[in-house]
């Protein structure tokens, strides 16, 4: 095999490993990743996987980078090319979670709680992805002439995270429709008109909330 062929084969293996790593991490967290587990699941040698990544932390960082690039390709680029980028971005994020591009839903919503109190390179990478999300929403809100874009960005991310969490915890896809209603109200309607927005005819979340915890 030529040197170029070996490099291409190594890159294919790297992509395969990282895709599986992101799938696992979206449901079980980044700490669940190990070189041995990935080698076993994918039928690769541990030494081969180790040669590609070197350490668990490097594997985690590469997995975060792959997940971020997936969001850019699936959500951000289509939104920026649309006539209504802010709404398209919100809808794209909801659809990304709803379609289970990764089995656990939103990759970053799954891994943030693991590292929010743990300084280090992995936390820095996750935090930077979150800052980019907030910054992009705020910029698009500013471009649309909406007031207080930073506050709006905070609320939008909160709604996206809530929909992802509710869909996973309650196995309830109506959470995405509820988030769409709330996002449209927040982005497009003046203050004081939220009561006029229709809500989905589903009582599962309300019923769940009525139970004593």
Automatic annotation (TrEMBL):
Which keywords label this protein? Answer: DNA-binding, Transcription, Transcription regulation
Tell me which stretches of the chain form a coiled coil. Answer: none
What InterPro entries is this protein classified in?
A: Homeodomain-like_sf, HTH_TetR, Tet_transcr_reg_TetR-rel_C_sf, TetR_C
What sequence ranges are listed for the domain HTH tetR-type? 11-71
Q: What is one Pfam family matched by this protein?
A: TetR_N
One GO MF term on file is: DNA binding
In terms of domain of life, where is this protein from?
Answer: Bacteria
Note the DNA-binding span(s) on this chain: 34-53
State the name under which the record lists this protein. TetR/AcrR family transcriptional regulator
| Native source organism of the sequence | Lentzea tibetensis
């Amino acid at each position: 095999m030529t040197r170029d062929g070996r490099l291409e084969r190594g890159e294919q293996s790297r992509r395969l490993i990282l895709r599986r790593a992101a799938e696992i991490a979206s449901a079980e967290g980044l700490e669940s990743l190990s070189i041995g587990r990935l080698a076993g699941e994918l039928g690769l040698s541990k030494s081969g996987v180790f040669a590609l990544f070197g350490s668990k932390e490097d594997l985690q960082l590469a997995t975060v980078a792959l997940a971020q690039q997936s969001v850019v390709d699936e959500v951000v680029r289509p939104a920026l090319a649309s006539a209504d980028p802010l709404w398209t971005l919100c809808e794209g994020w909801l659809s990304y979670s709803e379609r289970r591009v990764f089995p656990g839903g939103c990759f970053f919503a799954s891994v943030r709680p693991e590292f929010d109190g743990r300084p280090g390179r992995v936390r820095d990478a996750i935090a930077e992805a979150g800052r980019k999300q907030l910054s992009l929403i705020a910029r698009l809100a500013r471009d649309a002439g909406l007031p207080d874009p930073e506050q709006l960005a905070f609320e939008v991310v909160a709604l996206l995270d809530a929909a992802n969490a509710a869909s996973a915890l309650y196995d309830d896809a109506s959470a995405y429709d509820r988030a769409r209603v709330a996002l449209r109200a927040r982005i497009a309607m003046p203050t004081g008109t939220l009561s006029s927005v229709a809500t989905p005819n589903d009582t599962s979340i309300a019923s769940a909330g009525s139970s004593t915890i």
